[in-house]
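Q: My labmate handed me this sequence with no annotations at all. I'd like to see what the chain might look like in three dimensions before we decide whether it's worth expressing. Could you predict it?
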Amino acid sequence: MIFIVAKFTVKPEWTDRWMDLTRDFTEATRQEPGNLWFDWSRSVEDPHQFVLVEAFHDDAAGSHVNSAHFSAAMKAMPQALVKTPEIISERIDAEGWGQMGEMTVPE
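A: Here is what I predict for the chain of 107 residues:
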C-alpha cells in the first residue's frame, strides 16, 4: 500500500473552517475505489495544525492525484495555509492496520 501522512498548518482565521474547506475533497477521496482510509486529526500541541493519515492500494495513488477533486483541493487549500504542507509518502508492505505488539487490551 501507499501510506501517507501530511501536516497542514492553517492560518488562525481558517482553523475553525478547515474541515469545511476540505469536506468535499475528503468525502470524494473516501469514495475512490483504491482508497483504504483518509482520516483527519488535529494536533493536541498546535490547534492550527491538522494531520491527514491516508492510504491507497498501490495502483490507486495515480488516480487519486489525477482526480478532479484532488485538483480542486490543491487550488482551494493554499489560501488557508501558513506554509507548504509537510508530507511522508511511502510504499509499505502492509494490507491495513495491525494490532500493536507491545500492548494487549482484553476485549
